[in-house]
Structures are given as C-alpha cells and as structure tokens.
TrEMBL record:
It comes from Rufibacter sediminis. This is Y-family DNA polymerase. PROSITE patterns: UMUC. Pfam families: DUF4113, IMS, IMS_C. PANTHER family: DNA REPAIR POLYMERASE UMUC / TRANSFERASE FAMILY MEMBER (PTHR11076), PROTEIN UMUC (PTHR11076:SF34).
DNA sequence: TCTGGGGTCCTAGGACCC
DNA sequence: TCTGGGGTCCTAGGACCC
C-alpha cells in the first residue's frame, strides 16, 4: 500500500507572525529574539540576506537595529501559539488527518489523493492558508515523512518550485536526494554528519546506498528507519493525537545575575507554578520534581557552580501549593551563597493521568480542597490575566524577570494579555 | 557586559531476581 | 571451587528535533 505525506512548514514563522499585524514591515529585514533578548531565533528572508545567522547574539547586531536597518522583536509566544493554531485549523480543511509536528510544521495525510493533480492541490492549500491567516507556507509532498521533509526543503530553496514541490516519480526522488547534503537530512545532526562523512557519505543519496547492516551498526534502529524512509519505504506513521508529555520543564535565564536566595526562590516558585499549570492543562499529575541552578558557564571570571536535586513526592500532584513547597525544599538543599546565578529550572517527571493516582494512607494533604482551589485559580487567571492570584512565595519583587524590551502586543488573544498594569495586590 | 528553552527516543551498564 | 542464562527495572548519557 502506497502512502503519501505532505509536510507543511510556515516560512520564517515567528518573523511572519510579527508581520501579520505590522504589514509595513513586509519586505524589510526583521529578526525575533530568544528569551531575555539574548540571541536571534527567527529571521525574515531580508534579514538572512544581510548575513545574520541563527543564534547570533543580539549585541552583535544592535547597531543595525539602532540605525534602523533591521527590526528586532522580543519573542511573543502567546501570539505565535495563537497564529499556529489558526494555520493548523486551516490546513486541517485539506486532509482527513493531520499531525501537528511543531509550532510551525505539520504532516498531512494525502494518501487518498494519489493520482490527482497534487501540484494544483498544494497550490490551493498554500493560497488558502495565506488568504485566511496571512502566513506564507511551503509544502513538500512525497511517499514518506522523511522524503516529504526533503521535498519541503527543496520547495523553499528552489527558485522554480516557489514553495511547492511534489516528489512521487522515482527519478525526481533520486535527483532530490542527490541535491540534499547529508547534514540537511532530518534526523542527521552534527555527530552523525561527522561519522557519515568519514565513510564517504556526502549526500542523502549516498546514504541510501549504504547497506542496512552498516546503518544499524552505526546509527541504531533510528538510523535504519531513516534510511528506509529515504529509499521510499514508509516506516513513520502519522501521529494524529499528541500523547501527553512525559516530562514537563520550565526554566529561564534571569534578566540579571542573582545572588540572593530569596530572589532565586521566587523565580523557582514561579517556574513550579508554570509547570503545575501545564500539568493541569493535560490533566495529569507528577510524582517527581527536580530543581537545578547554574551560574553562567560562558563567564570566565565568575566562580562556577551547578547542581540539582530531585524529590519523589508521597502522592502525585498538580497543585501549585505543593509543587512550590517541594521546589523550595529542593532549592534550599542546593543553593550555596557566594555565586552569581544565571538560571534555574523546575523539571517534573513520572507523570500520570490525574484519575490514576496512587494514594497514600498517611496522606495529610486535603486533595479535594487543593483541586477545587486550583480550578478556581485557573478560572481567575484565564479571565483576569496570569498572576492575578498567586502563592506568596512567588513574590512581588520579580527582579529575576526576563528582559523583553521589544515585545509586540498580543494582537490576537485576550485583552488581559495586553501589557496593562493591573492591581496585583 | 551581552550567547534560548523545551522536548523525544534509544542504548549501555549495573542491580537484582529466579 | 566452579559458575548459567534469562528477564526486568533503573539511570545516565548521547543524539536528535524545533
């Protein structure tokens, strides 16, 4: 049975989102910065043409921004999340099933379109998504997911394709594989590139000529699956429903270096609350919590320290109160005075559905009460904005807060997400 | 002075059990 | 004294993704 997949990818997604609401920026170089305005994580084509690389530290391009040759935005994930949802909904109109692979990519199942004019169909998808959401996309179509990735990449690169490439003919497929360098293959990172190069594999095509036994030996089952996919044998299915997450993590670098325990505790408490909220969103609870702290390992002048602590809870929970409590216990055991801390994070694991919790006979927590408290809290925050109500440990100081001086407004979502000052106390 | 954050899957090796 | 083989679970670490 033959399969057919499309990989749809939003072009320069974050940059395109910023432009939707500021069309005057069309045709102008624009970048989006990471948290803390640290480095470049998205670029418009014009910014790429200026030679700005992914990951460039902001301070290296600040001059360009100041003289007006480049526009820079802090990242605005609320806006991007909402725009992503709109694009995925639009794409869903064109296929019986869709796998949302990341914030800006999805696979469509086009198997039932075999034999139709796929090129025309893809152009219709592209035009419609543009009309409905103002986000430009590229489409690659092929018999396997890995080949659809190859097609998508060439669709974007090629002047002739202009954003749509259908690869079904065996001759076209091998030409495409020859035109794809090994490091540009999905699933081949830095280490595998080095290894494959050493064995004379320069392109995706060379890779498909390697015997299965060799691939299995050097790249394990993941590599074997990949090489088969590139040869046209479908090994990766469409995963329509995202499974609940097995680990949930919230971590950030601070806006400035922190030395005081109380400040770091405040940040950690806020990250724990964020994790708790993510848990409740997917209706699960976590049994294990870890907290880590670290100094800035880039800095040669500072004393370096990093550590982490993990605690297994008596009963899995998704309550802010409990998770903040245990996060503080973890932090207390690893905090050492005398360092300039850069970053902390909270990681939750052993995640279970909230209706499958193993209770403890000696449990002293009133779980019903916690659950209804969290329900009210989620209601309040969704109506009045986040942090309208919080646990005292989360504090009001917030000297740890991110730097994001170039944030655009959340055009598409609740009024309460707009940066208005509300009465927290 | 400035350098992101959040995930997944797989494997190897040790502990432990029968 | 020697010394088997199969299974499971856990953990740390590596590799990759966007």
């Amino acid at each position: 049975m033959t399969t057919l997949f499309a990989l749809c990818d939003c072009n320069n997604f974050y940059a395109s989102c910023e432009r939707v609401f500021q069309p005057s920026l069309n045709g102008k170089p624009l970048v989006v910065l990471s948290n803390n305005d640290g480095c470049v994580i998205a670029r418009s084509n014009e910014a790429k043409a200026l030679g700005i690389q992914m990951g460039t530290p902001f301070f290296q391009i600040r001059d360009l921004v100041e003289i007006g040759d480049l526009h820079a935005f802090s990242s605005n994930y609320v806006l991007y999340g909402d725009m992503s949802h709109r694009v995925m909904q639009a794409l869903g109109e064109f296929a019986p099933s869709i796998e949302v692979y990341s914030i800006d990519e999805s696979f469509l199942d086009l198997t039932n379109l075999l034999g139709r004019d796929l090129n025309a169909y893809c152009w219709e998808i592209k035009r419609s998504v543009m009309q409905w959401t103002k986000i430009p996309i590229s489409l690659g179509v092929a018999p396997t997911k890995a080949l659809a990735k190859v097609a998508n990449r060439l669709a974007k690169k090629s002047q002739k394709a202009k954003g749509v490439l259908v690869l079904t003919d065996p001759y076209h497929i091998s030409e495409a594989l020859k035109a794809t360098k090994i490091e540009d293959v999905w699933g081949v990172g830095r280490q595998y590139t080095k290894l494959l190069r050493k064995h004379g594999v320069e392109t995706a095509y060379d890779f498909t000529l390697r015997p299965d036994s060799w691939v299995k030996k050097h790249m394990a089952v993941v590599g074997l699956r990949l090489v088969k996919e590139l040869r046209g044998e479908s090994c990766l299915e469409l995963d329509e429903i995202a499974p609940p997450k097995k680990g949930i993590c919230t971590s950030r670098s601070f806006g400035e270096r922190l030395t005081e325990y109380s400040q770091i505790e405040e940040a950690t408490a806020n990250y724990a609350a964020k994790c708790a909220k993510k848990l409740r969103k997917q209706r699960s609870c976590a049994r294990v919590i870890s907290v880590f702290i670290q100094t800035n390992h880039f800095s040669e002048n500072d004393l370096q320290y990093s550590n982490s602590k993990t605690i297994t809870l008596p009963v899995a929970t998704n309550s802010d109160l409990e998770l903040i409590h245990y996060a503080s216990l973890c932090l207390k055991s690893i905090y050492r005075p005398g360092y300039r801390y850069k970053k902390t994070g909270v990681i939750l694991t052993e995640i279970v559905p909230d209706h499958q919790i193993q209770y403890d006979l000696l449990d002293t927590v009133d779980r019903q009460k916690h659950a209804s408290l969290m329900k009210s809290l989620d209601k309040l925050t969704s109506r009045y904005g986040r942090d309208i109500v919080k646990v005292a440990t989360q504090g009001y100081d917030q000297s740890w807060q991110l730097k994001c001086e170039r944030r655009s407004p959340c055009y598409t979502t609740r009024l309460s997400d707009l940066p208005i000052v509300c009465n927290e106390r």
